[in-house]
Amino acid sequence: MEPESKGLKTAEDGEGEGDYIVISEVGRGSFSTVSKAVHRQSGQVVALKQVHLSRLNRHLKNCLDCEINFLSSVNHPNIIRLLNSFQDEGCVFMVLEFCDEGNLAAYIRRHGRVEEHIAKRFMQQLGAALEILHSHHIIHRDLKPENILLSGTQDDVVLKVADFGLSRSLHPGDYAETVCGSPLYMAPEVLQFERYDGKVDMWSVGVILFELLNGRPPFPGRTNVQVLKTIKSSTYLPFDQVILSRLHPDSVDMCSKLLSRNPVKRLSFSEFYSHRFFQGF
């Protein structure tokens, strides 16, 4: 990762880590830490993501480059907003808007399964974000409830797709091969080390929709191998039968077509957005 990335400055050029007061850590991964912080001068509350460059291989550095360049070029209510970025002391810092309502995973843990009208509203917002990714030829590759942040109020929740740390540019007709993502939300072609395209994000959307409607992901497993085995052994979507009896056929059809094991038969983005499930939006 070089400082030449679009929108990325060195500390000498402007802001640095010292311009922010860290309040608390809100997330930690193998390569980065996310903290709630306050800008010393303006008092603005932000999320400060610190990425340790020494821990990134070439693939992850390319993903970081893609993340910064993409977020620097978009401004959409359903995509986390990048306010600033800079390089300081061997780390890249991303200053992001702070979402005070947590993430979708915590929302599901609190509320359990949601009613269909709420699932539709959430999917409509997720679809709006995917439309932006699609127009920029970006695949996310790690869509999951933990990476969908919430803002707004309890009665008017706004979803924001975040953590583009595994994203990459992929033009129509091209394929990727790197195995990455979170097992419960990874498409079978990724789990099987096959080449793949943007349809992997549609699989993840299907898993998220199923989880919203049913209260848990469809294909459990603690490892990639276990999840793939569960996917291959499933002959039908494992909805709770009581829940299934109450779901509209369009909801079930949307899940089924997003969770097609064959990516050729899986819904494309345009088919997803025009599905009967969204009637009324």
From TrEMBL:
* UniProt keyword terms in alphabetical order: ATP-binding, Kinase, Nucleotide-binding, Serine/threonine-protein kinase, Transferase
- One Pfam family in the UniProt entry: Pkinase
Protein kinase domain location: 20-278
Residues binding ATP, per UniProt: 49
Q: Which SMART domains match?
A: S_TKc (SM00220)
Q: Which GO terms describe its cellular component?
A: autophagosome; cytosol; membrane; phagophore assembly site
* InterPro entries, alphabetized: Atg1-like, Kinase-like_dom_sf, Prot_kinase_dom, Protein_kinase_ATP_BS, Ser/Thr_kinase_AS
What PROSITE patterns does this protein map onto?
Answer: PROTEIN_KINASE_ATP (PS00107), PROTEIN_KINASE_DOM (PS50011), PROTEIN_KINASE_ST (PS00108)
Instruction: Look up the record and give one Gene Ontology term from the biological process aspect.
Output: autophagosome assembly
Q: Name one GO molecular function term.
A: ATP binding
Q: What family is this protein classified in?
A: Belongs to the protein kinase superfamily. CAMK Ser/Thr protein kinase family. SNF1 subfamily.
Q: What does this protein do?
A: CIPK serine-threonine protein kinases interact with CBL proteins. Binding of a CBL protein to the regulatory NAF domain of CIPK protein lead to the activation of the kinase in a calcium-dependent manner.
Q: Which PANTHER family match?
A: SERINE/THREONINE-PROTEIN KINASE UNC-51-RELATED (PTHR24348), SERINE_THREONINE-PROTEIN KINASE ATG1T (PTHR24348:SF53)
Q: What is this protein called?
A: Protein kinase domain-containing protein
Species annotation = Malus baccata
Tell me the lineage of the source organism. Answer: Eukaryota, Viridiplantae, Streptophyta, Embryophyta, Tracheophyta
